[in-house]
């Protein structure tokens, strides 16, 4: 029985690890194929003391200007928000010349996970997409927008082994 359980767990881990690292672009045109400037969207966790891991799954990234979708390339499927002083690259997007402002929407997948000491559990990330407007002049200064999520303020316990993500964040350019 023990051998069967270990085999099943191994197969599940193998199946999960095979999912997701090479993703197609989110739009028909790749960011490199469009004339304009390419920018990065990054996600960083702050105030994560006490957590050994906070894994957040990324479902999609959408960028629009004047109601039109811009080409994006999603490059991360899951990020660990406990990585100190590191903003994970989520994806890139290209803004055509003449655009002054873009709207960004970042959507998380259904569930992630957390680990704190000897406890661990599910992280419910089924929240509305994170949305913000970004002036292209501000993006041009460093070539990116960094979403800084306050982990300590954003993870709310709903059960002993479950947390709910209610994002408390700032966006820096």
TrEMBL record:
It comes from the Bacteria. The keyword Signal applies. Keywords: Signal. Residues 1-20 form the signal peptide. This is Lipoprotein. It comes from Hyalangium rubrum.
């Amino acid at each position: 029985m023990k051998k069967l359980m270990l085999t099943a767990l191994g197969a599940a881990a193998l199946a999960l690890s095979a999912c997701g690292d090479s993703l197609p672009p989110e739009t028909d045109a790749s960011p490199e194929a469009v004339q304009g400037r390419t920018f990065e969207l990054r996600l960083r966790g702050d105030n994560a003391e006490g957590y050994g891991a906070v894994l957040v799954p990324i479902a999609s990234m959408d960028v629009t200007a004047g109601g039109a979708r811009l080409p994006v390339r999603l490059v991360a499927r899951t990020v660990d928000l406990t990585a100190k002083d590191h903003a994970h690259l989520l994806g890139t997007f290209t803004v055509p010349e003449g655009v002054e402002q873009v709207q960004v929407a970042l959507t998380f997948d259904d569930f992630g996970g957390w680990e704190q000491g000897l406890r661990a559990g599910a992280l419910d990330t089924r929240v509305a997409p994170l949305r913000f407007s970004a002036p292209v002049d501000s993006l041009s200064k460093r070539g990116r927008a960094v979403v800084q999520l306050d982990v300590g303020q954003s993870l709310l316990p709903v059960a002993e082994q479950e947390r709910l993500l209610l994002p408390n964040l700032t966006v820096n350019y």
